[in-house]
Design goal:
alpha/beta; TIM Barrel; globular; eight-stranded parallel β-sheet; two-stranded antiparallel ribbon; 10 helices
Length: 326
């Protein structure tokens, strides 16, 4: 199955599998459970695994990699520097490499563009007492450290995550090595067309997290206005026609649109059909047009815990007025 997985090209000429397995499950699943899911995903043909130090499972996943990876060049492994290590990127990367048992990462991301930190399992009203808004000079200090990792050969590509257009405009203006990818929330009810178009127009690959609407997201990220993608009548009708679960349609939509989905599941009965579908099923132009019409601008991962004193509300994290919010 691995040989059948389509790929997407980055501006460097490298290729990345068109679907990966996410590993953010630490609020609901132990590190051992997530690691077993990674092992199962590799067995069925996944060759892209999306990790992060803050998920607190890289050591366990590293044990799987040591057993399962025979040819490193066949795999695409991503990790991320967490908010409390923006000033110590090299050490953070080296820790992830050691935990994962790897000599290099294919992609290393700045997990959030602000250093505001929260501990595991906090409530929605938790706040970092030292929190502050995006400060571009500070971010570029972090980015220069990311660029140094490429020059050292510890990572092959660097990228951003949870960014906005005004922030990316500043980074693209000042970066020596531009982001190869931007990881962003993407699902049929939150399509982010402007940001999607911006990154694509600038040769940055969009990687979509929460591609099926993040049903296992932390409680702190749930609000009464949230919608459920896999219950949308348009998604359900397409799934019924194809004979698949609605979650599979959400993943196929991303691949056909041009982004790389990284669904998370610990169940083989869920993650294997997604991979099989990407390798063999197609959506029609009519399907794609129908799905484009169900965007509800419903952001699920709002980021309330990263707010700073003086911020109006969580929307300030996302620069709704087209300028960096202060």
């Amino acid at each position: 199955m691995a040989a059948k997985v389509p790929t997407k090209a980055l501006y460097t000429g490298a290729t990345i599998p068109a679907i990966g397995l996410g590993t953010f499950g630490s609020d609901n699943y132990s590190a051992q459970v997530v690691a077993r899911a990674v092992e199962g995903a590799i067995e069925v043909g996944y060759r892209q695994i999306d990790c992060a130090s803050v998920y607190r499972n890289e050591k366990e996943i590293g044990g799987v990699f040591r057993r399962a990876i025979k040819n490193r060049d066949e795999f695409w492994i991503t990790s991320k520097v967490w908010n409390d290590r923006h000033g110590d990127v090299a050490a953070s990367c080296e820790d992830s490499l050691r935990d994962l048992g790897l000599g290099y990462l294919d992609l290393y991301l700045v997990h959030w563009p602000i250093p505001n930190h929260h501990g595991p399992g906090v409530s929605v009203d938790s706040r970092d007492p030292h929190a502050r808004p995006y400060i571009h000079d500070e971010f570029m200090g972090t980015w220069r450290q990311m660029e140094a990792l490429v020059r050292r050969g510890l990572v092959r590509h660097i990228g951003t995550s949870n960014m906005t257009i005004p922030k990316l405009e500043l980074v693209l203006r000042d970066a020596e090595i531009k982001p190869a990818a931007n990881e962003m929330e993407l699902h049929p009810h939150f399509q982010q067309p402007e940001l999607f178009r911006f990154v694509a127009d600038h040769g940055i690959l969009p990687i979509g997290y929460s591609p099926i609407g993040s049903p296992s997201r932390p409680e702190r990220d749930r609000t009464p206005s949230d919608t459920v993608d896999i219950e949308d009548p348009v998604i359900v009708a397409i799934a019924d026609r194809l004979g698949v679960h609605p979650a599979v349609v959400c993943v196929l939509w991303q691949v056909h649109r041009g982004s790389v989905p990284i669904p998370f599941s610990v169940k083989r009965s869920q993650f294997e059909p997604m991979l099989v579908a990407v390798c063999g099923l197609s959506l029609t132009g009519r399907d794609m047009a129908a799905i484009s019409g169900i965007d509800r601008n419903c952001r699920l991962i709002k980021g309330q815990v990263f707010l700073w004193p003086g911020a109006k509300d969580w929307t300030d994290l996302w620069d709704p007025d087209g300028v960096v919010s202060r």
